Amino acid sequence: MKDAIYTSLLATKRKRRKSFAVLIDPDKADTAKIARIIDLSTRAKVDYLFVGGSLVISHQLDEVVQQIKANCHIPVILFPGSPSQISPYADALLYLSLISGRNPELLIGQHVISAPVVKKSGLEIISTGYMVIDGGAPTTVSYISNASPIPADKNEIALCTAMAGEMLGMKLIYMDAGSGARRPISEEMIQLVSSFIEVPLLIGGGIKDPEKVYLNAKAGADLIVVGNAIEKDASLLAEMVNALHSVSVPERP
User: Fold this and answer.
1) Can you give 161-194 as a three-state secondary structure string?
2) Nearest by Cα to 174 from 78, 241, 94, 115
3) What pLDDT is recorded for position 234?
């Protein structure tokens, strides 16, 4: 089924349930480390494994994805920093448009260049409105994109940006404070944005403990993405997933 992953995300959202993804950066993970993450993710019942980074200079993207696919059944979704970060061995690709910035190359320019290769990849393509939120520290994506993040206290700007992305046809909205963020996205911003959009909302960056996972999910995040925290303390993974699944959201009438 070509749109299996997106269909699953929509179904999960309709049921008012939450999902969890672990982000693996191929530049920071060797074979042994990936094997450990796979084992922990499988035991913790992680929903998705995201693979990608802002640079990916190691040229091991295919090898990383193949190692994951050979050792578990968790769907692999590419989270690319550039059009070159494509592996046909993955299940899906977040086709990111940086809607929070004003760099035309990352809004549409690089997509025009990458479209033929992406089309031929056979991957499930999920158009994603990508929004970088100020996390209190310079991020690689802000530097590479030459675009300023949305200020952390400008909830209305985030809201209007997300609504515009949805109305332009984006299937997902991904708000990211960036790798190594000193502060994560506020629950107030998440709650405001989630209350005005219908597509699934992904949240990542600066999430370091189970409590923040719980609060983000309670505020309206549909999928939580964690990377650095897992790399620094893998024992947190099961606690984070348990915290996410403990969120009880009332059924809509």
Assistant:
1) HHHHHHHCCCCEEEEECCCCCCCCCCHHHHHHHH
2) 94
3) 72
pLDDT at 56: 60
Residue-wise over 77-114: b if at least 16 C-beta within 10 A, else e? bbbbbbbebbbebbbbbbbbbbbbbeeeebbeebbeeb
In a domain, 111, yes or no: yes
Domain count, the chain: 1
pTM assigned to the model:
0.94
Residue 124, CA distances (Å) to 6, 34, 144, 172, 194 in order: 8, 23, 26, 14, 24
Domain that holds residue 217: 4-245
The CATH number assigned to the domain holding 34 equals 3.20.20.390
Q: For residue 168, what are its two tokens?
A: 């332009």
Mean of the per-residue pLDDT values of the chain: 91
Strand partners, 181: none
Catalogue the long-range contacts made by 84-90 (C-beta closer than 8 Å, 24 or more residues apart).
Answer: 84/56, 84/114, 85/52, 85/53, 85/56, 85/61, 86/61, 86/114, 86/117, 86/118, 86/121, 86/123, 87/51, 87/61, 87/62, 88/121, 88/122, 88/123, 89/62, 89/65, 90/51, 90/65, 90/123
Task: Report, as an integer, the average pLDDT of 203-227.
Answer: 96
